[in-house]
Design goal:
HTH_TetR; AcrR family transcriptional regulator; Tetracycline Repressor, domain 2; mainly alpha
Length: 213
């Protein structure tokens, strides 16, 4: 369904959530309020309540919008690449670009992870679920490399997903906070090493299998 085909209320809500993600990147999810977002988009506070009802509902909706943005920008395009190492590399390339371009969806997940790590409740639970889903998506892409014979059969896909996520967090930290001009290069080198360590030895001769008549 195209954007113009969506009902007006849905289009308004989507536009508000886009601004909500951007605002939460600046002030944090805890600083995101019905009134603050209403001022940001030029909507009445009562109109904002009609869409979301409470601060917590707004926070959950903003997290979901950020997840959808990240999926649309990074995950879905990566899945268009051929299964295996090429798909994993596509994921890494798109994820790096997301960080370099400071796209709000990816940025919010990094910030919210620190902000909510000791705040129990539905918002933290939702964020944790989204991180778990991301780890599972990475692991499945790596498993595709195993299936295609490009990565070793004993590759620990969950460990690979954890290591790749760690590389990306380090790049965010280096690029955004430290303004390190080598942050991208370091990330790409680390990703190359992860893949090299898991890569199957395709140069080794595979014993022929003889089938008796």
């Amino acid at each position: 369904m195209t954007t113009t085909a969506l009902p007006k209320g849905r289009r308004t809500r989507d536009a508000v959530l886009t601004r909500g993600v951007e605002l939460a990147c600046r002030v944090g999810l805890g600083g995101l309020t019905i009134g603050g977002l209403a001022d940001e988009v030029g909507m009445s506070k009562s109109g904002m309540y009609a869409h979301f009802g409470s601060k917590q509902a707004l926070q959950l909706a903003v997290l979901d919008a950020a997840a959808e943005e990240f999926a649309t920008t990074v995950i879905v395009p990566a899945l268009r690449a051929p299964r295996g190492v090429e798909r994993v590399r596509a994921l890494a390339d798109l994820w790096i670009r997301c960080g370099l371009e400071r796209q709000p969806g990816g940025c919010l997940f990094v910030k919210a992870s620190t902000e909510l790590d000791e705040q129990d409740g539905p918002v933290r639970d939702r964020l944790r679920e989204q991180h778990q889903q991301l780890a599972q998506s990475i692991a499945r892409m790596v498993a595709g490399g195993v299936t295609e014979g490009q990565l070793r059969p004993d590759t620990d896909t969950e460990q690979f997903a954890t290591d790749l996520h760690g590389v990306m967090l380090a790049m965010y930290h280096g690029y955004r906070l430290l303004s390190d001009p080598a942050a991208e290069r370091h990330a790409r080198t680390a990703i190359d090493r992860l893949l090299d360590a898991a890569r199957a030895d395709l140069t080794a001769a595979t014993p022929a299998v003889t089938v008796s008549a």
